[in-house]
């Protein structure tokens, strides 16, 4: 018999009043370039705990062989999972069963018309059968304000880049 996994006991209140960012969980994933010396084309991604260990490959649309995952798929999985978690949290607060909720994240990689660089575009689609659309919409808006991936999308994420050795 398998043990039931419990959702995390996270707060949905904006109850933190610290002076700086306060990490709750930190992870590191390292990517090398593989035979093509290009992380997207032939790299390998490994998490510091070894749980994530997979080949990265360019999708066929970008000239690759498509025989591995790519950063956009990983980002879509993370975004969908995070938003689903936030939505599940607020659903439970309203005594709604989140078991039927699914979240699909579509991530498009393309060119930015403002500067010609590269840009991502994300579309989230929530399937929540049996829930009044007005209730679902209000809870999706609350989840949007809680989900760190959604907040990153509309607020930005502080990033540092450091050279070692």
What are the SSEs and their pairings?
Layout: E1 29-32, H1 39-42, E2 44-47, E3 53-55, H2 71-93, E4 102-111, E5 118-127, H3 133-146, H4 148-155
Antiparallel strand pairs: 1-2, 2-3, 4-5
Q: What would you note in describing this structure?
A:
- This protein has 165 residues and is an alpha+beta fold.
- The protein folds into two domains: 43 residues, Single Sheet (N-terminal domain of TfIIb), CATH 2.20.25; 87 residues, K homology (KH) domain (GMP Synthetase, Chain A, domain 3, 2-Layer Sandwich), CATH 3.30.300.20.
- The protein is built from four helices and five strands; from the N terminus they run E-H-E-E-H-E-E-H-H.
- It has a three-stranded antiparallel sheet with strand order 1-2-3, with no helix packed on it.
- A hairpin with a 6-residue loop joins strand 4 and strand 5.
- The longest helix has 23 residues.
- The radius of gyration is 19 Å and the shape is globular.
- The mean pLDDT is 92.
């Amino acid at each position: 018999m398998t043990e039931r996994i419990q959702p995390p006991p996270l707060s949905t209140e904006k109850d933190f009043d610290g002076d700086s960012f306060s990490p709750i969980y930190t992870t590191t994933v390292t990517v090398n370039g593989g035979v093509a010396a290009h992380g997207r084309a032939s790299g390998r991604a490994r998490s510091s705990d070894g749980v994530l260990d997979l080949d990265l490959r360019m999708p066929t649309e970008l000239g690759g062989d498509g025989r591995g995952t790519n950063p956009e798929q990983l980002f879509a999985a993370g975004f969908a999972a995070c938003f689903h978690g936030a939505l599940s949290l607020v659903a439970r607060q309203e005594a709604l069963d989140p078991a039927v909720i699914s979240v699909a994240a579509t991530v498009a990689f393309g060119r930015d018309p403002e500067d010609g660089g590269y840009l991502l575009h994300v579309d989230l689609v929530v399937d929540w059968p049996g829930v009044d659309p007005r209730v679902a919409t209000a809870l999706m808006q609350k989840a949007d304000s809680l989900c760190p991936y959604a907040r990153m999308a509309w607020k930005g994420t502080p990033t540092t880049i450091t050279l070692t050795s």
